[in-house]
Amino acid sequence: MFKKLYGSKIFAIALTADDEYLEYNLKLRDSEKDIDREARLNKAMDEIKMIEKLKKEGLINKIVEINWDNRDELAELITNEVEQELRLPAEKEYKIKLK
Asked: Mean per-residue pLDDT for 3-13?
């Protein structure tokens, strides 16, 4: 895990969603049988528990739950979280050179 290797140099954000939101989106796909969809939903709930555990261990900095209210602004929400962590003013544009 990157957080173990790089410690405070990494800011890890995990995305989660509640079971109702996940189930609705899986049903929209209409590509699986009910039993397969239920298995995927159960696996997702297990993964969310693991994410919460990693957060408690300090390996994830922030958990953002996707929901009906924020789904359309997700990119902005994540950008704001990173800006807050870096303590950058949100109104400025920053250019980063990759080496």
From this structure: 82
